[in-house]
Amino acid sequence: MLKYSKALGLVVFVFLFAMCNQKSKSETEKETILKGSLDIAVDETVKQIVDDQVAVFEGTYYNAKITVKPNSEAEVINDLLNQKTKVAITTRDLTAEERARFDKSKINPRVTPFAHDAIAFISNKSNNDTLIALKSVIDFMQGKTDGKIKGLVFDNPNSSTVRYMKELAKVKEIPKSGVFSFKTNNEVIKFVSENEGMIGVIGINWFYQPTPDMTETINKINVLYVKGLNSNEYYSPTQNDLEIGKYPLARDLFIINCQGYSGLGMGFASFIAGDIGQRIVLKSGLLPYKTPGRKLKIRSEIIKDKE
User: Fold this and answer.
1) Which top-level group of life is the source organism from (predicted)?
2) Which of 61, 123, 196, 204 is deepest in the core (most CB within 10 A)?
3) Domain 36-116+252-288: which topology?
């Protein structure tokens, strides 16, 4: 009888221990704002800055794993609308129609702006003229050629840069003649570096933060100064010109969170919009949405260092 009681007690103990372990494992695997795993759909034109943010976030919060999935803007937005992804980073806010679709699904997207970005025009280094009028580019997209532009080079027909320029030129389709499109910003940069007279259209983040294999190629191109439609001055996509609101091809970056609960998407959005995330944006060459503060220590007297 005693042996039976001991055996029964041992079984109960093992069962309770297993249950506690299972509970502990379940709690460990549960997603919070600082731990768990998350896939983020990212506009390919701004992948570099997102990679930086993810690297620092994961280095700070070891239990968080974020996978960046770059794609064209059209595909990123479609994945959001079809709930194939819950979190995305885009170069524009949601439209009224897109928000209406989320409303029908009883989803309330949280949209957080975190940086000021820009579309840049680039040319071959052999081109001594580093100035371009935005009107000339728009005329070219409308089929009006004056010989000043040999051709335009885009990354992807479904990209945010194409969408931006089509809206600016008020055209539904890009011209079939004189316009080239590839798949990535790196391909645009490489093509322009090898072909004189071509004007590339890229996200400026790819120029400021080139991939290691593109460092030499970057040195073969110029970023052009652009004259806006209602301006007589030329401005470049630098932090200074973005901050004063003079560069005519500026745009904002947004993280859109459709998780619907306090998960890793919320934690990451808070991180990139917070002090550390904004400093990462500043270092990248883009303009932070909120300028990181500086702490100054003011002393009432000068303390001489000991000799």
Assistant:
1) Bacteria
2) 204
3) D-Maltodextrin-Binding Protein; domain 2 (3.40.190)
pLDDT per residue rounded down to tens, the chain (307 residues): 444 444 444 444 434 444 444 433 443 458 899 999 999 999 999 999 999 999 999 999 999 999 999 999 999 999 999 999 999 999 999 999 999 999 998 999 999 999 999 999 999 998 888 999 999 999 999 988 777 788 999 998 999 999 999 999 999 988 888 899 898 999 999 999 999 889 999 999 999 999 999 999 999 999 999 999 999 999 999 999 999 999 999 999 999 999 989 899 999 999 999 999 999 999 999 999 997 755 555 555 655 554 4
DSSP 183: S
DSSP secondary structure letters along 241-265: HHHTT--TTEEEEEEEE---SSSHH
CB 221 within 8 A of CB 123: yes
- The pTM score is 0.83
